[in-house]
Every structure is written in C-alpha cells, then in structure tokens.
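Subject: for your reference before the review

Hello V.,

The reviewers asked for a structural picture of the protein, and I figured it would be easier to keep everything in one thread rather than splitting it across files. Below is the amino acid sequence we used in the manuscript, unchanged from the supplementary table.
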Amino acid sequence: MGLPKFSRIWLIAMRDFMGYVKTWGFWLSFMFPILGGVIGYMFASSDIDLSPPRYETVLDETGVHGAAILDFYETEQSDIRAKAIKAMAALLPEADREAFRTSVDEDGYEAGLSELRDRYPTVAERIEMPTPSMIFVDPPENSLSALTSYLDGDDRLTVGDESPRLNGVIVIRGTVDDPEAQYWSKNFNSPPAERLINRYFSDLAKRRYLESGGLSAEDYDEAVSGRTRVELFNPAELSGEDEAEAVSMLDRLPFFAGLGLAFFLLMSIFAGAFMLLTSMIEEKMNKLLEMMLASTRFSEIMLGKMLGAAMLTFASLAPYILIALGGLIGFLLFGNPEQVAAIREAFPLSTILTSLIFLVLGYMFYASILIALGALAQSMQDAQTLSLPIVLLMFLGIGVIQFGAVAPDSPVVAFASIFPLTSPFAMMIRLASDPPLWQVLLSIFLLATSVVVVMWICARIFRFGVLSGSGVGAIKSWFRRVILRKAA
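And here is what came back from the structure prediction:
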C-alpha cells in the first residue's frame, strides 16, 4: 500500500483552503477584529465619549442629608482614584512599591500622582484616571414640579459653555432622624444615583448603630482593615523548611492560559466543522470525490481535508493570534524584568509542548469524525442531523472547561483529563496545577491511540459513504435489518 504522499495531501489541503479564502465571507470575518481595533482606537483617541457622565441634582428638605450624600460621593471617587494610582505600583521597582502604596494611603492620590510625575514620568504617562459616572450640580429650580421640564429635556442646564440635560433628581424628605429618599429619572433600569443613595443610607445606618454602643465607624473600619487576611500558597513551591511565596496573579497565568487554549480548541473545531461537512457534501454530490480517488487514496483525502480545515481555522483566527502574540512579545521585551522572568518561569517549554500535543491530537480526533459524517451525508439536512452528536460532545467539552475552571483538582476533572473524548480540554487546564507525570503520559497515549482508531474507523466509513454512494438512509436500513430484525 505504501505511505500517503505529502504532496497530494498538500494539494488537497490547498484546494479546500483557497476555495474558502477566495470568498467574501472569509475576508469579512478576517478583517472584523482589525476594523474593530481601528474603530476602537479612533474612539479612544477622539473626544467622543460613549458613556458621558450623568448630571444629577439634589432637593433636600432636611438640610443635612443632601450635602452628606455629596461628601459621601466625593469620598468614594477619591478612593477610586487612589486605587488607580496604587495599581501603578506594579510598574515600579520592587523596592519602591510598598513605600509608594503607603504614601498614597497616607497623603492621598494627588500626592501619589505628583510623586509619579516627579520620579517616574514614563509610568505617570500610562495613568488613565477613571471618569466619574455622575456630576452633581445645583438645582436650577427649588421644586420637583419645576424641574420636570429639565428631566423631559425641554429645558437645559448651564454648566460652563455646555448645556447638558438633567438626568435625575434626588429628593430627600422627612426629618434628619427619619428621612425619606426618592429618585426621579427617566432612566429607571439601573441608575448610579440610586445605588449611591442606597450605599449612603446603608453607611449611615451602620454609623448610627455603632454610635449607639459608644463605637465609631472609623474605629470599626480600621479594625476590619487590620484583620488577618488569608494568603494562598502552593505546596509544590515548598522546599524543605524554607517558606514559599504566596500565590500571585503571575502564578495563576498558566491556569488562565490553559483555559484559553481549551476554548481555542473548541473554536477551532466549530470553525472547521462547517467547512469539512459542506465540502464533503458538495464534492460527493458533484462526483468530485470519485474523480479524486482515481489518483489519490482515501487516507490522503482525509488528511488533506483535515490539514485544509486546520489552515483555514488558523487563518480565520490569525488576527486574534497576532494581537495576542504581539502583546506578549511587547511585554517580554519592554515589561517589568521581574514579571517577565516570572512569566518565563511559569511557562516552561515542557508545558508549552504538552499543550500543543493535546491541541493537535484533539483537533485530529474530532476532525476525523466530522469528515466521516460528511461522507455519509447526502444533503445539508443530513449533515445537521449527523452533526448533532458532535455538537453534544462539544457541549460536554464546554462543561468540562467550566467545571475545571472552578475545581481543577476534582476527581471528575482528573478522570476527564484521561478520558479521550474530554482529555484535550481537561488536561490543558490541569497542566497549570502540575499533575502527575504518569497521568499526562497516559492521557497522551490514550488520546493518540484513540485518534488512530477513530481515523481507521472513519476511513472505513468514508470509503463506504463515497464508493457506495450510501448515506443516512443506508444506516437506517442496516439498523432496521440487523438490529431490529425487520424488513428494510
């Protein structure tokens, strides 16, 4: 028989690949992320604000709570700005990070911003201060009925050179000790002012309760902030009596990368499934497969179509892959040296190669089944019927990914990482937690063996479907005759 010739496999792959690449649909999907990035950059670099702040005002009959709500909101905004400034500490040298965070806590975000501009101007340039969701203005009228025209948009506010619309009115009635709060706005789905009022009165209730027992909210917050905090540790990092470092976000990156690769495999199978099924149906109906069999083998046709579908999937996802690789390369070249070293340590060559093995074997496993189903299908209706089991298997893979995301050490995930139908998805998630080597090798062996067996069976089905011209009807007839013992 001899081995399949790669030249024939490549010709079949290029024929299928170029057949789809020449279509408008492929280039529209290819250009979509690029156009999206260009449009996003244009919006980001322009003065267009897709979510402008809401203009709110307060009518306070108590004379106390209105001003207190505004102070409460300003305190929250200061805390948000302080967190944004403290987040930039990750870009500073490790020796200066803790001192910088302490300085922001003690002196405020403005002092931290000034320090960054003086000592680390390149870091300061990367700061994007969060935009407040609301801007409070003085009420243009002193009654709710008079403000109705502003809420309807008939009248406008005067704020500097702008004439914005009044989005909502906070009304505080009752007494200081027993207030009643209302919020009037045409946006009643989830307005930020309503959430602000609820947070304010929740904080007020806490303060009053603590003060009734002779306690202060500040002391309570200080006690809570100084509580014992739990740190996560990985026992694999423990060596002898030395203390290991707590788990950081960099330590979690391999886990997130495993999740991303598992989803990438799912996307690859879904993206290539339509091409494999439709190409098989078209070539079978047009008698092209019979012509190809005059000069090529079944194995060469199967491998060529699998390679063509893989190339098409890779080309379709190329913009996303290039963006991800560009960001990674840029970070490795210009990022914080300590973080770069940690990432390189978190992704050893063995983990990368093992993930690629599962990615390739998983694709070959499901692609073989799809080609066999395409050979049996005689119409798009048949293809939809036959592809249903594969879709169900894909949902099983999605379930494994979701379960592995919350419980990667579960016995169910451990079994799924060895079971061939789900091992490509589950094992890529488990690689981050350093599973036993024997489980990894067993999973690769079982998956590789399953790929060989499935490809052999699918080649038989492929030969049967193409040469005999049979399809779903033949399978139904065989089932009735052999299994049910009924006349066809």
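For the response letter, the relevant points are probably these. The chain has a mean pLDDT of 78. The CA atoms of residues 376 and 475 lie 9 Å apart.

Happy to draft the paragraph if you're swamped.

O.
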